[in-house]
Amino acid sequence: MGYAEKRGSYWRGRYKAEAGRYATVVGADGRTVRFRTRRDAKQAADAAEAAVRDGAWRGPTAAGRATFGEYTRRWYAAQDLAASTMQNYRRHIEEHLLPAFERMALADITAADVSTWERQERAVPYAASSVKTWRGTLHLILSDAAAEGLIAANPAARRRGRGRRTGRSHRRGPEKAVTSALGVLLIAERAALLSGRDDELTAVLLMGYTGMRWAEVVGLETEYARPDSVRVEWQLYELDTGKLHRCPPKDDSHRTLDLPHWLARLLSDHVARARPTPCACHHRTYVFRGHAPANGARRPGPRMADVARRAGVSTGTVSAFLNHPATVADATRDKVAAAAAELGYTPGGGCGELAAHWRRSGFAAWLFHPAATGWYPARAPQPAHPVPLLADPWPGLPARGRGAAARAEACWLPVAPGLTPHGLRHTHKTLMEELGTPPKLMDERMGHEDGSVQARYSHITPDMRKRLLAALTDTWEASLAARRAISPGSPVATLDTLLRGSPVSPNDDGPPV
User: Fold this and answer.
1) Which residues is 258 bridged to in the sheet?
2) Check: CATH 1.10.150.130 for 68-171?
3) Positive or negative, the Cα torsion across 190, 193, 195, 200?
4) Is the N or C terminus of the chain more exposed, i.e. has fewer CB atoms within 10 Å?
5) What is the domain partition of the chain in residue ranges?
6) In this structure, how many other beta carbons lie within 10 angstroms of the beta carbon of residue 440?
7) Peptide bond just before 506 cis, omega within 30 deg
């Protein structure tokens, strides 16, 4: 017998279509019929089941003549998911699924069609992991269509034990690049040199020693930066529109991250130095601000090139005067200062205020990637090229302005080829594994959940937290000592203070030097 199923504000009829499978009562247009009462839904389901027994039932293909494009648009509009998930679904559908299946009737899509489409996507070639993700979205859509009774079965489902087994290991994704504690420090220093400020030093160290996601660092508000911890409550997720969407962290992984005292001190000193103010886009105060001029923001006034022209020097010299004045000769420094005063030049005055927030692509391409690899990425019409450096002081100052490559005296060797900002999250997990951190504590810091019985019966103690923080401090001190052995100072002011100060004992409760 059929039955009625409550679906929010309406009822739908469900009936047994064949052994082991139930279908939904649909109309001539292939859409689920929404009944106002339970009685009407039950009667329609009984009638459909009687038609099945009498042999008059033609299956869902008779009603499911809606095209894939029509159904998918209706399916997408009915979803209520996180903005990032909706964006990804839309990209998968518009760029990869609709071009292949849009005009096909749902009932006409076969497993062979899906396999042919998948082979064509791999032949483009797209990464195997990407094609797998797009097929997953297709499977989800067709699974819902089957649940509504529009198709008899999901043609995107994979049957176990079918298909070639050889070569599967070659289609696995590449291993995520990670680095060491010293690598984190070197990349953080280089990123600060590339940006001309200390903010990136603190941000990269924060990601490397907490495992925070990129969007969580960008979305860290000052009220959640505590004296000994940070609370991950929000993230700023960058959508395709260019807007930053304030939303909960991925998978609702709200958590509190204990900080070693040296890192907590770095973070608090950064906030005190930067004195952040509420942004215009979210009206909230964030710990970190962007490094590039805001898009379209430009105020009238003299530019760096104007100062360079008046002083008779290069724009690179003016940039060095502004960011690293100690590297500029006294006579040149006086000449540039006089030219800036005559023109009324203020840093940033000719190119607008700093952006309120970092942008993922800009940070990765112009700060993190060159810091990790020593190379700027290819950006048309410019090919990939090494970061031009003035060799002194170590590790070198990025040469700026026109003719920078000709003036360069050195370039950076790679620290961690292939490393991405998200790779610092993998690095932190790997570092905790090396330190023998209990799995329960690692899951808490990473924002992961383990539903196993072992995890249910294990608990985090204060001593576990203290041991981890002490071990992270030992690791930091070892990396700082290794960096000091290379060169006793740094052009980055914050790091220079740490290198020239005395190491802090992990058992010392006082503030770090």
Assistant:
1) 229
2) yes
3) positive
4) N
5) 3-57, 68-171
6) 17
7) no
